Amino acid sequence: xxxxxxxxxxxxxxxxxxxxxxxxxxxxxxxxxxxxxxxxxxxxxxxxxxxxxxxxxxxxxxxxxxxxxxxxxxxxxxxxxxxxxxxxxxxxxxxxxxxxxxxxxxxxxxxxxxxxxxxxxxxxxxxxxxxxxxxxxxxxxxxxxxxxxxxxxxxxxxxxxxxxxxxxxxxxxxxxxxxxxxxxxxxxxxxxxxxxxxxxxxxxxxxxxxxxxxxxxxxxxxxxxxxxxxxxxxxxxxxxxxxxxxxxxxxxxxxxxxxxxxxxxxxxxxxxxxxxxxxxxxxxxxxxxxxxxxxxxxxxxxxxxxxxxxxxxxxxxxxxxxxxxxxxxxxxxxxxxxxxxxxxxxxxxxxxxxxxxxxxxxxxxxxxxxxxxxxxxxxxxxxxxxxxxxxxxxxxx
Length: 397
Fold this sequence. Notes:
The chain is of the alpha/beta class. The chain has helices at 13-46, 90-111, 131-144, 159-162, 170-180, 209-229, 272-275, 288-298, 358-384; strands at 3-9, 72-77, 115-118, 152-155, 185-190, 193-198, 249-252, 302-305, 312-316, 320-324, 337-344, 347-354, 385-391. It has a six-stranded mixed β-sheet. Helix 1 (13-46) packs across helix 2 and helix 1 (13-46) runs antiparallel to helix 9.
């Protein structure tokens, strides 16, 4: 007798149970892939970064703090560009906000910084939105970039927050300053370290009310530094108990004057075709006159900026370094990053932390999704059919 094996659909209770069991496994694998690509990858990548360490040899010998200070741990980022109602697709907005939220919250969990500085362009449409939409903007910022009470957050104003100099209105400026408790020129002293934050749009020097206010405040900060240094005595009582002098850390949205990004060699610097594009003063950078004036008045030990959406390290006269940070948003940069810094009144150390590359996430989705679908297809062939014997030829006698 010759027996031929044929395929017959299994419709019994065991078959239906097996079917739903495999469907459940399929969706479980999909959820695991989503967890890996949307949550776990941020921990995998950011755990490869760590706080820098201070080099005693790099301490400023001429700056001797009056008392010892615990090193201050600072996180710096720039250009989050939270989308509003005008630019971008709703899914693009959802995707970018989720990426920044996960990267930021993961960084807080891993590194627990003492202070966070965001170097302008928090919003993408702050210069156009109504007061109602601006309030929604601020609430969304506080939700996405939530930080515990022990971690202080400071925001520097950017051109997308209130507009370039020519379009800044008093209402937009004061609205942003109230929301984030900032001013055109602001200084804070944290654990003996002096941080000075500047509204870059106020440094045009054309005599407008915005510029005049900033010039007055800049001179006031310079006088404060002279008092802490012991070079000025008149009016120093206004500042109360003065800290020991420490060269300030300077933060603003625009970079200091430079001709282009041609000098930049960071891994996240501008693409080759953009590096040689000339910068326009007051648009891509501060003017040379304003930059020289700031450096002369403040003599900062290090400067930080954003605005260009690309990373850059440059040095100005007397060797003062400036770090331009890239955009924190994957919408503007395929390989975003932020910076960690350790500061004492006479020393500091910096390290840049790179976030997941979006192409890597896409590749994980493609490979992982393909494997899940292939597994489901192979399982499906066994789930829907089983082999049973059947007599196809009569037995010959």
